[in-house]
Structure formats: structure tokens, C-alpha cells
Predict the 3D structure of the following.
Amino acid sequence: MEGLMVTLDQIQYYLLMFVRVITMLALLPIFGANYIPAQVKVALGLLLTSVLFSVQLAAGLPAFPGAFTLPLFFMLVIKEALVGLAVGFASSFLFTAVQFAGRMVDTEMGFGFVEVVDPFTEEQTTVLGQLQVILFTILFLAINGHYFLLLTVQKSFEIVPLFGASFPGGGMADHLTTMTADVFILGLKLSAPIFVTLLLSELAMGIVARTVPQMNIFFVGLPMKIIIGMATMVIVLPMLADLFKRMAEGIIRDIWKLLYIMSG
């Protein structure tokens, strides 16, 4: 029975690890989706924390920084939550770029005034944006992206051990700012083939309206843009899939870099 004894220090370590894990899971794509019940997220967080804690316990727990006090423990909880928030926030950029690309195309296609509720975020999004999120989520699962997200949780404790996180203002702010700017660049890349095609078709319809004024271009133009946009999306979808894979690899590198920045 002595082998089953749990010390107060071990409970403290477990709680701190759980704070980081559950904060990451709340923001990670797929795992943090709002349609997943909170009970499932908490259960998964407890499971991952138990596995990681057992590994950490076998390797040896790091020394607690100073004598235990409630203010110190509260500060450590905030510190671990910030690590989870930073990683989860960075990982969400991938699908943010997908939604941004879909909104741009929908605005040009004429679907900008039609919005639906995104089950991932419970926010208003456009029709094509939601379709692209579903398609690229399936692709993300197909390339085992969810395994990487779980690996990120485990690697975070190797790269940024408990009590070892640091938040250098300059380097971390620059990196997150760069990642935020990349969201717009990635969104433009994803939307460029369809957006440019729609823009050219709109220019062509403008020329037709000038040369054949008897034609009601507004009556003909809207359904034509929808057909052209959907057909172009089907044609360029394999190319967009390859681009999405490269985007996912880039997000992976950015998250590793962020973890190494926080490791001090």
C-alpha cells in the first residue's frame, strides 16, 4: 500500500500539468471545438495529464521553486495557463486562414450575405468558408494532424518543463505578430485561384454589359458567378489540398519555434 501513497507535492505537480494540458485542449483545432462536450474535454485532459505525469514521475519531478505558498502556486498556475494559451492560440491560426479565404471568395461570389453558424467556434461564417473548413478538417485528419496536436501537448513538457517557462517580450511578440500576419497571407493564397477567376469573369461581364446593353447583366451575372466559382473550386481543390499540407507543416514549425522561445 505504501507504493500507492500520493504526496502533496505530487498533487501540486499534477494540478499544474493539468492546467497546461486543459488550456491547450480548449484552443487546439478539432479537440477544442465547441460541439465537443466539456465533460469529454475534461476527461481527455485528465487522461493525457495522468499519462504525462506518470512519465514525468518516472523520470523525476523538477524541484519546486521555493517554499510552497498559495500566492506562489497561483502564479505558477497562471504561468502554465499562459503556455497552454500561447500554443493553442498559435495552432488555431491554420483554420482561421481557411475561414478568411472562404469569406473572401464568398464576398466575390455573392454569398457574403448568407451566413451560417460554425460549429467549431459557434460564430457566424459564410457558406463556402464553412464548406472549406469541413473539407480541410477531413484533410487535416487524413494527414494525421490530430496526432501532431497530441504530440504538441507531450513535447511542450519536454521543451518547456514545469516551472521553466519564460516569456521574452520582444522575441515572443515578434513571433506571434509574424504568425498573425501569415494568416492573411495564407488566406490570400488559398483564395487566390477562385478569387482571380471570379474577378476576371466579372470584368468579362462588364465588357458584355457595355457591348450588349439590352442584356440584364445583373440577372445573368449572379448565377454565372456562382457556377464559375464552384466549378473553379472543384478544379483547383487538389492544388489547394497540397497548399494546405504545406501550411500545416509551416504551422508545426512555428509552434516548435514558439516552444523554444518560451523555454528560455
